[in-house]
Amino acid sequence: MAAAATRSSKTESYVDNKRKDDVRQSNIIAGRTVADAVRTSLGPKGMDKMIQNGNGEVIITNDGATILNKMEVLQPAAKMLVELAKSQDIVAGDGTTTVVVIAGALLKQCLILLNNGIHPTVISESLHKVSEKSVDILTAMAVPVELSDRDSLIKSASTSLNSKVVSQYSTLLAPLAVDAVLSVLDPAKPNLIDLRDVKIVKKLGGTVDDTELVKGLVFDKKVSHSAGGPTRVENAKIAVIQFQISPPKTDIEQSIVVSDYTQMDRILKEERNYILSMIKKIKATGCNVLLIQKSILRDAVTDLSLHYLAKAKILVVRDVERDEIEFITKTLNCLPIANIEHFREEKLGRADLVEEVPLGDGGKIVKITGIQNMGRTTNVLVRGSNQLVLDEADRSLHDALCVIRCLVSKRFLIAGGGAPEIELSRQLGAWSKVLHGMESYCVRSFAEALEVIPYTLAENAGLNPIAIVTELRNRHAQGEINAGINVRKGQITNILEENVVQPLLVSTSAITLATECVRMILKIDDIIMVR
């Protein structure tokens, strides 16, 4: 009887462990599946993905964060890899595919270690040590860079753009990204860049070659000239208003019945006088350009008010979005005006020229240039022949801006082309021989996992990955720490000399975020559904 009880208790404990192993295994497999989905889009020769949503809208991209964001991932552990790509996008802005591929390779090694009977906690602790050691190794490899060294900044932005769909325009977009970030850099806060100060305005038409940096403001709108108002104003005094130049409405839904035509005339006369008195107050301050915020309660302007504004020679841009107001007022160095009673000359912004500029393909934009006491902001007008190219150019430019932002906050450059990963793998492998016990075994496995980046780069470029990675290992063993895969020449060269560089922050955050995510997945031994 006692023997039977012992046997049953053993059986129960065995089933319990089996369930925990199954949960870990299913989580790791789900995570690896997500990593494999984006792995082919790594590097300059990586493939692009075409994503179609339920509305039939199509996106073509090879940006890891965008691909994963659009995927409908249901498995909870797989969702963690989607969040991982988002985290990398927030921290560094680039390397979103790299971080997911590294996490997938680490998960693969974790599964092998678990199947060899090593406890998840031991694996997790080893992974934490690997992460800290990796950051030290990468920092030792890095080359310091100064913001005055414009060429180095352009090289790192070009490296980011070379793996994008719009890579052929990297010679135009890279300098543009560098100039945009440096123009909004505040000397009082030299390590801080807010990319919300760089506004990207997308306008369909032309080609990506027509993309330009505008020192001033750009609106993807036409001037309201239905009543024949001006389309060009020099020595402009600009007001940003948040009230409506239209007759007031009742607070609640009411209908007013007018039975007599004389009353009708009186109402129309009152409306005219009401609008006219507002426009006289505006004109009295010398204001000659109005930027009117979009209104949801009633029309911001009516045909009658536009007619009077045109007679007063005031240029009108209407339907300015609410979330753009802060950027506009910061750029113009003016204050938004919420009520006609508060309309004062000191609240106006001043600029040399406000004009409507026709673009060759029938579209029009409004440009404000020569702004006096302009805030630290800038505009980038992005053009593209179709919506797919335009959206991808916007995403690519955002990545390039983030790369420069990384260099502002942490001023170190590191080689690209798989050089840091293979060097990490080599040094961690050597370090594992100094360690003892299971830790040594785990560190050696994770060192092998990091070879996935150069292996994938070679594979996506159509090279022989085994021969390339073996040669790369050999070169690094001889002390060439900047030797990497030159996918254009199809051979191993000194990547720093080839100008393939990236910010140190991109590499360090990729390693730390990937190891953090994998450790979290490892520690999960059960999934509990709550209804």
From TrEMBL:
One of its GO terms (cellular component) is cytoplasm. Its main location: cytoplasm. One of its GO terms (molecular function) is ATP hydrolysis activity. The keyword ATP-binding applies. Keywords: ATP-binding, Chaperone, Cytoplasm, Nucleotide-binding. Gene3D superfamilies: GroEL, GroEL-like equatorial domain, TCP-1-like chaperonin intermediate domain. It is found in: Cytoplasm. The keyword Secreted does not apply. Belongs to the TCP-1 chaperonin family. PANTHER family: CHAPERONIN. Molecular chaperone; assists the folding of proteins upon ATP hydrolysis. Known to play a role, in vitro, in the folding of actin and tubulin. This is T-complex protein 1 subunit delta.
